[in-house]
Design a protein that fits this description.
single chain, mainly alpha, two-stranded antiparallel sheet, 5 helices
Length: about 140
């Protein structure tokens, strides 16, 4: 079972990661299929079941690590206009990271309205990701 430190730090159990869905309840045939897919592709089809969640997990954890390893980068140098405000790269990263976190945490909520609202906000923030992507290197 794969783990993700940053997602686990949010209190989301390892078995709830998109890469680990259904692992405990899967048939031996399904486990074998996933193992074959992992050997062939490096990941299995569970990652494609809910790409919104898979991507939110990916971008949240990668941005957390990026912030840890980019201490030598001036993340205030690049600026962008977002939501009629000027934001620098660091502010943009935190907006995206926090929105992904909000969406991931909403998935444990039984209120579908909260989940839908968080997903809509996450989708809107992806426009900001497109703006900062060319500057995302260390």
């Amino acid at each position: 079972m794969k783990r993700n430190k940053y997602i686990e730090d949010l209190g989301i159990p390892r078995e709830n990661l998109s890469e680990n869905m259904c692992e405990k309840t899967a048939t031996p045939e399904r486990l074998s299929q996933w193992k074959s897919e992992q050997a062939k592709y490096g990941f299995d089809s569970r990652c494609s079941w809910n790409l919104d969640v898979t991507f939110a997990e990916w971008i949240y954890s990668r941005l957390c690590m990026y912030l840890e390893h980019s201490k030598h980068v001036d993340l205030t140098y690049h600026t962008y206009t977002w939501d009629n405000k000027k934001v620098n790269q660091l502010e943009a990263i935190n907006i995206i990271k926090d929105t992904a976190k909000e969406y991931l945490l909403s998935l444990n909520d039984t209120d579908c309205y909260k989940q839908d609202k968080a997903l809509k906000k996450f989708c809107e923030v992806m426009e900001l990701w497109g703006m900062i992507l060319p500057a995302m290197w260390t």
